[in-house]
Amino acid sequence: MPGLIRGIARTAVVAGTATSVSNRVSRRQYNRWAEQDAQYYQQPAQYYQQPEPAPSAPVSSAGGQDRVAQLKDLADLKAQGILTDEEFAAEKARILGG
Questions:
Q1: Taking the complete model, does pTM exceed 0.70, yes or no?
Q2: Is the separation of the CB atoms in 45 and 51 below 8 Å?
Q3: What average pLDDT does range 2-30 have in this prediction?
């Protein structure tokens, strides 16, 4: 009988040690993966930046129809989301000469 109890106790110790080691390894691996994920998500996103548009030729004061066409084109670009509100306002002011 004492041999049987000793065998059961030894098995319990081995199983407990194995569980403890397994849990520790799992925690270390989880922490390592969490650090890698954090580094990945902390990197700044790289977006495509549109090049600055080339300056266009100045509008002559006699070309009133030309200004209207340019303003329509500008409004289309803004509606498509290509121009921001600030860019639209700056180009509009340039076209109108103000």
A1: no
A2: no
A3: 84
Residue the block writes with tokens 């548009």: 53
* Residue 83 buriedness (CB in 10 A; 0-12 / 13-18 / 19+): buried
- Quote the pLDDT of residue 51: 74
Mean per-residue pLDDT of the chain: 80
What mean pLDDT do residues 86-95 have? 89
C-beta of residue 58 within 8 angstroms of C-beta of residue 91:
no
DSSP of 3-61: HHHHHHHHHHHHHHHHHHHHHHHHHHHHHHHHHHHHHHHHSPP----PPPPPPPPPPPT
Tokens 């495509």, residue located: 48
Cα atoms in the Cβ-side hemisphere of radius 13 Å centred on 78: 15
